[in-house]
Amino acid sequence: MYFAVISIMPDMFAAISDFGITSRAIAQGKVTLDCINPRDFTSDNYRRIDERPFGGGPGMVMMAEPLAKAITQAKQLAKQHGCCVDSEQNLQNCPVVYLSPQGETLTEGSVVPMANYDGMILLCGRYEGVDERLLQKYVDRQISIGDYVLTGGELPAMVLMDSVIRRLPDVMGDDQSAQQDSFVDGLLDCPHYTKPTEFEGESVPDVLLSGHHANIAKWRFVQQATRTKNLRPDLWQAFKPSKQQTKWLTAANID
Ligand code: 9WO
What we know:
This protein is an alpha/beta fold. The protein has helices spanning 14-17, 20-27, 64-80, 108-114, 132-138, 154-165, 175-180, 206-209, 213-231, 233-238, 243-251; strands spanning 2-6, 32-36, 50-51, 61-62, 96-105, 119-123, 141-144. It has a 5-stranded parallel sheet. A two-stranded antiparallel ribbon has the order 3-4.
């Protein structure tokens, strides 16, 4: 899967390219990440990418032209990396996404289909924002990672890439773990335990040491259900249990 980030702080993305599972996915050629700096598309000596806002007000606004040229470069690179185009050479499955508090809120449900994109071009704003004309003409989707305002779109872009990359085939050590994580089945995660069996006087639930896989599966589901019902009633309301899960819920007196 191809990712391009448009950012005046490209070095931040070392967090994705140089560490952890995302770094391994890049090393294995499952993911390509290009960091494109709009400053490289300026024509003045000061490499200006921001200007005072028309109409006055605090701060600076990112200018449309350097961003437009950077996005155009990203689209070229996406095509070179095999992202599909239509008969008019327009990218078909590689949206330009602006990370913004005004965007649709990212959830595991919206992440799942993103793993089927050929690529994503992520526009990271700074200062007070981006010239509206650039957003209108070049941005396909706006995505928020939550109802708070940050100093830039780079961290949200990394959150989005991490959530998508971990869902790509064979990226996680055990494909199952990507599927079993919180939210995938609409529930919060169950508790996890590992060695030692005794920690500061606290032991491990016996069922997890029993080797009885059916009982372990039932215990883990009941834990998920209890946590979700107590902590996220909104998720619990929307959850549709299978026949087996309904039997387990009845036996555990959870409704
Ligand atoms: C700034 C702002 C202030 C008050 C109310 C809404 C606001 N939106 C923005 C905004 O979009 N700012 C741009 C991107 C430029 C400044 C840094 N940016 C940013 C993106 N801050 N916070 C985000 C963000 C992105 C995705 N999910 C959560 C926050």
